[in-house]
Amino acid sequence: MNDIAVRQQYDRLARVYDRRWSRYISRTLVLLKTWASIPPQAAVLDIGCGTGEFERLVLSEKPEQRMVGVDLSAKMLEIAREKCQAYLNVTFCAASSSALPFPDHSFDMVVSASALHYFDQPEESLREMRREPDRARSGCDPALSRSLDQI
Question: How far apart, in whole angstroms, are the C-alpha atoms of residue 32 and residue 25?
Answer without folding.
Answer: 10
